[in-house]
Design goal:
elongated
Length: 163
């Protein structure tokens, strides 16, 4: 099953409608003349924004795919070169944001947000000081455990189990 077929197979009717309506609005806006005061390039950006808003609102495509629409539309329409658009995706702030979101997701996955959130203010009296201290001590404890486990001998499999 190809990717477009896989996406269409999982879509609800509302998502399919959003996909079609977004594309139709994009095409319609491109066919219309730009209002006074907006350059043709600006009108293309407005059209693309309407397309992306329709797809985001209805979740017609995965949000990550929808977020890549400017990377395709803007260079093809001649609004901006590919390098300039791609630079917007690779800004240091974007990577900082992605890193923070990944840390937050890992906190949720391992339930650290609940454990650390309850213990930090009790132990230090301040949430900020507690979080800073917990990260430092947690890192040291992990390293100590890794060091201890590397010194303990590993159990060897008997010859009957190795076969």
């Amino acid at each position: 099953m190809t990717l477009p077929n896989a996406i269409m197979a999982r879509q609800t009717s509302g998502q399919r409608i959003g996909l079609i309506v977004g594309a139709l609005l994009f095409g319609l806006l491109l066919c219309l003349d730009a209002p006074a005061g907006i350059s043709p390039e600006g009108w293309i950006v407005v059209s693309m924004t309407v397309l992306m808003a329709a797809w985001w609102f209805t979740e017609a495509l995965p949000l990550g795919v929808t977020a890549l629409v400017p990377l395709i539309v803007l260079p093809l329409a001649g609004v901006s070169p590919m390098g300039a658009v791609a630079n917007s995706y690779a800004s240091p702030f974007a990577f900082l944001l992605i890193g923070g979101l990944m840390i937050g997701r890992s906190f949720e996955k391992w339930n650290l947000h609940a454990r650390r959130g309850l213990l930090c203010p009790q132990e230090t009296g301040s949430l900020l000081a507690g979080v800073s201290a917990k990260f430092g001590f947690g890192w040291e404890e992990k390293k100590r455990c890794e060091h201890r486990s590397s010194r303990t001998p590993k159990r060897r499999l008997s010859s009957s189990r190795a076969k």
